[in-house]
Amino acid sequence: SDGKIAECNLTGATLLEGDKAALQGKPFTDFIHVEDQDAYYLWRQQRFPLMRPAVLELRLRRSQAPFWARLEVSTTKTAEGAPSWRVAISDVDQLKSAERAVASSERRYRTLFDGALEALFTLSPPHWRVSSANDAAEALFPGSPMIGRGLWEASPALQKEGFRSEEAYQA
Q: Please, what sign has the CA dihedral across residues 24, 27, 29, 31?
């Protein structure tokens, strides 16, 4: 409960770049990136009284560069019966990098999709209803918004070949 490292396994020592014995008694906050300190203190203040398992992602310091870590916290009691936390630290730096790349790709896709002059829309299985549509698609199929509609609902009731639009889409 005092925020100091009581024990540390080899994996934790490696992530924190320290000797297992030397890490004992050090404040865990010494390893938290300066920009994440306030968020950690607030999180700790809110979570500790609850004494429930929790997960937190923040940056930890390393000599070369900080890295993103996931802290999986479970509650326990010390030998004296005082409440305590057991923290499993995982390096999630590559995961965070991948998340940033996906977000960037999504922003580029959204810009291209929304700005296209051609009608673009996506359909979601299993009922093949419109899940996204750009302005050009909305203009092509006037009426209510396309999202949630089947294409047969936006098409003329009868196709030029004489069959019902709904039958064509259901086939």
A: negative
State both tokens at 116: 């296209």
Do 68 and 92 meet the contact criterion of CB atoms below 8 Å apart? yes
Cβ contacts of 91 within 8 Å, gap of 6 or more: 15, 67, 68, 69
> Coil, strand or helix: which one is 82?
coil
pTM confidence score: 0.67
Per-residue pLDDT tens for 89-113? Answer: 999 999 999 999 999 999 999 999 9
Q: What single DSSP character describes residue 63?
A: S
Starting at the edge strand found earlier in the chain, the sheet holding 67-77 runs 54-60, 67-77, 83-91
119/117 Cα distance (integer angstroms): 7
Query: How do strand 54-60 and strand 67-77 relate by DSSP bridges?
Result: antiparallel
Which residue stretches of 8-133 are H helix? 10-15, 20-23, 37-47, 93-115
Measured at the alpha carbon of residue 152, what is the angle toward residues 151 and 154, in degrees to the nearest 5? 65
